């Protein structure tokens, strides 16, 4: 059984499931996922869109709904008795599920570590009690678990192999029906709360830029698990002409000359495609106040965290204004060295991400654990 809670986790899990099926075609896999996991061959019990919530306040609002799904999964563990439970990130839900699996005698492998290096380091003690093996993506995570005597392997980040541009920028634009003029990507995230917080501000900044530079085009990828109706409702309140794209994400990103992106795994993908971008993020004020006291690292962007450098501009909370978004987008759009800087960032991020073959390495470890 595999459980994911949001889009980037599902993308990673789908690559692992594809590899698992190749190595052992008779393996039966079920759990919480979405279309990518269905396509990879997993039987999806609950769609992860039901779980996609970001922020402490936001989770509290949907607690009853999340608790119902949790109880449903505990029942499935008890009745189906899987040989292994593989949990992917999403620690608020998954560590509780690991505890229930442990009571039932079902072994647990955790793929993609909770961010214990950033906040709630005490979770390592919980992990030691309820998780049998950690499969981490980043080399710097290994010593954290070794020091706590938690069995751990760094399998490498799947994006090292997965993010390979297949088209040039001009080819990607043509494939998406865009013209050669500049393209700005608006990437407001994959969770409802993120999109509601960020997209209206991105659109307002886009409107200003479009007035100054009417030739500029705007694209918005429809993230997996995100309802198009929610996006359309926000777009209906804006005069900005936006190309909503549900196709190949890497093709969409490659077509962009600059991207404004919500914090998350997507920023690693943008960096590995060498596209100029910056990070913007907002959560409920109470959530942010709590997080500021808990988070122990200076960066929120994964590129900055894995390299230990402030490579990517981070605009957070009250700094995320229409004025600032407009300024940052226009800066990257008009300066002559944006592409060179983006390529340099790509090289630095790539060298910090560890070994290649991440999904295959994870699949092998899972099968070895089950044998």
Features:
14% strand; 13 strands; 2 domains; alpha/beta; six-stranded parallel beta sheet; 371 residues; seven-stranded parallel beta sheet; Rossmann fold
Write the layout of secondary structure elements.
Elements: E1 2-3, H1 7-23, E2 30-33, H2 35-40, E3 43-47, H3 56-61, H4 63-80, E4 85-88, H5 91-103, E5 108-111, H6 123-130, E6 133-136, H7 142-147, E7 152-154, H8 159-162, H9 169-175, E8 183-187, H10 192-212, E9 217-221, H11 228-235, E10 243-245, H12 249-254, E11 258-262, H13 265-272, E12 277-281, H14 285-294, H15 302-307, E13 314-316, H16 322-334, H17 338-352, H18 358-370
Parallel strand pairs: 1-2, 1-4, 2-3, 4-5, 5-6, 6-7, 8-9, 8-11, 9-10, 11-12, 12-13
Helix pairs in contact: 1-18, 4-5, 5-6, 10-11, 10-16
3D structure, described in words:
By secondary structure, this protein is α/β, with parallel strands linked by helices. It folds into two domains: 2-157 and 354-370, Glycogen Phosphorylase B (Rossmann fold, 3-Layer(aba) Sandwich); 169-352, Rossmann fold (3-Layer(aba) Sandwich). The protein is 50% helix and 14% strand. The chain contains 18 helices and 13 strands. Strands 3-2-1-4-5-6-7 form a seven-stranded parallel sheet, with helices on both faces. Strands 10-9-8-11-12-13 form a six-stranded parallel sheet, sandwiched between helices. Helix 10 links the parallel strand 8 (183-187) and strand 9. Helix 1 crosses helix 18 (358-370), helix 5 (91-103) packs parallel to helix 6 (123-130) and helix 10 (192-212) packs parallel to helix 11. The protein is globular and about 65 Å long. 44% of the residues are buried.
């Amino acid at each position: 059984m595999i459980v994911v809670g949001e889009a980037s986790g599902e993308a990673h899990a789908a690559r692992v499931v594809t590899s698992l099926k190749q190595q052992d075609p008779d393996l039966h896999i079920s759990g919480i996922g979405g279309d990518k996991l269905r396509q990879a061959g997993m039987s999806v019990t609950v769609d992860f869109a039901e779980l996609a919530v970001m922020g402490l306040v936001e989770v509290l609002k949907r607690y009853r709904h999340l608790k119902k799904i949790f109880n449903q999964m505990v029942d499935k563990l008890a009745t189906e008795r899987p040989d292994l439970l593989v949990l992917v990130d999403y620690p608020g839900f998954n560590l509780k599920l690991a505890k229930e699996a442990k009571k039932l005698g079902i072994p647990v492998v955790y793929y993609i570590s909770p961010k214990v290096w950033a906040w709630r380091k005490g979770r390592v003690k919980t992990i030691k009690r309820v998780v049998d093996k950690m499969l981490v993506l980043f080399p710097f995570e290994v010593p954290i678990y070794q020091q706590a005597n938690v069995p751990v392997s760094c399998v490498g980040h799947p994006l090292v192999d997965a993010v390979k541009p297949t088209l040039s920028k001009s080819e990607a634009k043509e494939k998406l029906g865009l013209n050669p003029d500049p393209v700005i990507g608006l990437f407001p995230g994959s969770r409802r709360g993120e999109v509601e917080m960020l997209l209206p501000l991105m659109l307002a900044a886009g409107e200003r830029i479009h007035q100054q530079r009417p030739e500029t085009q705007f694209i918005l990828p429809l993230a997996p698990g995100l309802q198009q109706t929610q996006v359309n409702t926000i777009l209906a309140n804006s005069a900005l002409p936006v190309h909503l794209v549900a196709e190949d994400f890497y093709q969409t990103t490659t077509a962009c000359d600059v991207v404004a992106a919500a914090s998350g795994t997507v920023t690693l993908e943008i960096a590995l495609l060498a596209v100029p971008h910056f990070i913007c993020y907002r959560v409920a004020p109470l959530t942010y106040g709590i997080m500021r006291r808990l988070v122990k690292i200076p960066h929120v962007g994964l590129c900055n965290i894995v390299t230990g450098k402030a490579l990517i501009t981070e605009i957070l909370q009250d700094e995320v204004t229409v004025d600032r978004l407009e300024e940052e987008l226009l800066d990257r759009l008009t300066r002559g060295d944006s592409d060179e800087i983006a390529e340099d960032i790509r090289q630095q991020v790539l060298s910090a991400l560890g070994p290649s073959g991440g999904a295959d390495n994870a699949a092998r470890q899972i099968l070895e654990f089950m044998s």
